Amino acid sequence: MVCPTMVTLNEASAQSGLSYDYLRKLCLQKKIVYVRAGCKYLVNLEKLVEYLNRGEKEDT
Fold this sequence. Notes:
The chain has helices at 9-16, 20-28, 45-54, and strands at 6-8, 34-37, 40-44.
């Protein structure tokens, strides 16, 4: 079993080059995989990379 790499929004921002606010917005819109630990958002880094590579699907 492989454990996912969970990082804070600040760490995800530093690694991806995306802003903290944009990543938080993606969490609130449930577009990326995350969990809340108290008041912190922990983002699944592998799923974030997958989302960034895939892009958003358009509704047609």
